[in-house]
Each structure stands twice: as C-alpha cells, then as structure tokens.
Amino acid sequence: MQWKKATLVGVGLLGGSLGLALKQRGLARSVVGYVRRSASISECTKAHAVDEATCELNEAVHGADLIVLCTPISTMQPLVRRMLPALKRGAIVTDVGSVKGSVVRDLDHCVAQAGAHFIGSHPMAGSERTGVQAAHADLFANAICVVTPTRRSSKTATRKITALWRAVGARPMLLDPVKHDKLVSRSSHLTHLVAAQLAAYVLHPQHPPEQALLCANGFRDTTRIAASSPEMWRDITLANRTHIERALQRFIRELTKLHHVIRAGDARRIEAFFAGAQQRRQQWQLPSAAASPE
To answer: Mean pLDDT score of the chain, rounded to an integer?
Structure first.
C-alpha cells in the first residue's frame, strides 16, 4: 500500500532512515519531517530523507495518515498531546521506541481521543551514530521489528503497521508490550549498560595513560554502543527500570559466581564457562536462528 502523507516526528538516524526507505520504495506520496531546530530543516532535505521539513508540529501532522514518533521516549507523550488537534481521524500513529509498556499505555488512549489509532513498534536496528547524516535506506533490511498491539488495537491498523515494516525490509514480530520489555531488558538494555560501564571503568583517568593504548579490537567491539546517545539511553533505562533492575541482579549474581571460580583457580570450570558461552554464541549465529518470526 502507499501512504498519502507520512510524517516523521524526529528525523535522526531512525527517522531519517525510514524516510529514505519510504521515498526510495515509493511507499508514500509525501514524506514530511518535524524537527526541533530550524538548522535541521536543511540537513533533512539535503539528506533527501524527507520531501519537506518544518519546526511546526501541527503543520507537519495535519492531513497525515501515518505518523511515526522517532524521538526520545520522554518526549513522545507531550508531543502527541500537542498534535491532537491536527491528527486526522483514522490516522495511524506508531513509534520506534525501545520500550513499549509505558509508551503503549501513555499513547494508546491519548491518540484514540482524536479518533486515530496507536500501534507500538520497535525496529531492532540502529547504530551508535546519531543524526540524519548517518541515515540510510537499508537500515531496517532483515532486522526484526516488534509490533505491539493490545486487545483494544484496531486489527486493520495493526496489519498496516506490520505491512509498513515489511515493506521497508524488516521482519515483523507481534509481541505483548510487557513481554517485549522483559526480553529487551536482557538482550538490548543490559548490553548497553554493560558496554557503558566497561568503557567508563577501563578508560577512567585513574588508570595510567598506557591503558587506552592497549584497548584493541576486543574492547572496541564490546564497547561500540557505549558511544550512543546519553539522552536516549537515560529515557530507556528509566522507562524500563523494573525489568532492567531484575536483569542486572541476575547478571551480577552470574558475575559473582564467575568471580569465585576465577579466585579459586578452577581451570576446568573456567574453560567450561568460555566453552558454554562460545557454544551459545555460535548457535545464535546459525541461519536457522535467523528464520522469519512470522
């Protein structure tokens, strides 16, 4: 299907990449971007991520049949409240946020007040790079995109959002919002916290200057995502803090067990630890593990 007007509220890496994909694949007649700074208008149009950009939220939203929220989680509800007078009846609103429980709870009823529909989304794609300059049309290619309808959600709207992500190359997966948050607290959110803590500890200025020189590929690969947006990860951590806290507690217990094994100098158990991790990592990489979730 082709959307008549698609509005991207926020045109950074994810919003810009979605705009490029919509335009290059002919999925929308018009792609409009809402940005906070006037300087961003020329950046968006220069990157060809949108057909036009504006700092006027209601102007961007007016008449759109698809609105995608691509902003930090904490700004989504205030932005939706501001755009309610301009929301077209029957329009579909979705988002790209990494937390779904609170987002769905906050926005579902709010959007319904305007006679529109909210269906949560989370494309499992991204980068430590930010801004529309880092956007590219293939960002979502073969990436899982979780779609989180509720029992109250319109089945038609859900089908359209699922079709949207499939059309830009993603692999849609339907999940309950709470289950989504529990799963990503381990696979995504804990991963970022560990990477950030590792970077903060190893690169702390209390260590000698030679320390940073000895941080090679292993450190670079493990901490790459520590360069991500602090604002975005502050919001994600707070919004999913219950599940993240549980994941952290379990992870700390497992690290403590490993600490005891290392302190005891138990060569057999140390090797078993690495062998088990290697086996699970290799199993995860097998083609069968990447089969379509649909």
So the answer is: 94
d(CA 273, CA 135) in angstroms, rounded, equals: 39
CATH number of 179-290: 1.10.3660.10
Q: What is the pLDDT of residue 129?
A: 72
Task: Find, among 85, 97, 109, 3, the residue nearest to 51 by Cα.
Answer: 3
Nearest to 65 by CA among 45, 79, 86: 86
Reported as a pLDDT band with limits 50, 70 and 90, residue 132 is confident
Residues 6+ apart with CB under 8 A from 164: 3, 27, 66, 94
CATH architecture assigned to 3-176: 3-Layer(aba) Sandwich (3.40)
Q: What is the mean pLDDT of residues 31-44?
A: 90
- CA distances 277 to 46, 65, 225, 248, 249, Å, are 45, 46, 21, 18, 19
Is the Cβ–Cβ distance between 157 and 215 less than 8 Å?
A: no
Is the full-model pTM beyond 0.85? yes
Q: With contact defined as beta carbons under 8 Å apart, do 36 and 42 qualify?
A: no
What DSSP designation does 149 have? -
What tens digit of pLDDT does each residue of 80-93 get? 999 999 999 999 99
Instruction: Provide the pLDDT for residue 69.
Output: 98
Give Rg (Cα) of the chain: 21
Q: Collapsing DSSP states into helix, strand and coil, what is residue 217?
A: helix
**Segments in the chain forming alpha helices (H):** 13-24, 39-46, 57-61, 73-83, 101-112, 155-167, 177-184, 190-202, 210-213, 217-223, 230-239, 241-264, 267-285
d(CA 125, CA 137): 12
Domain ranges of the chain: 3-176, 179-290
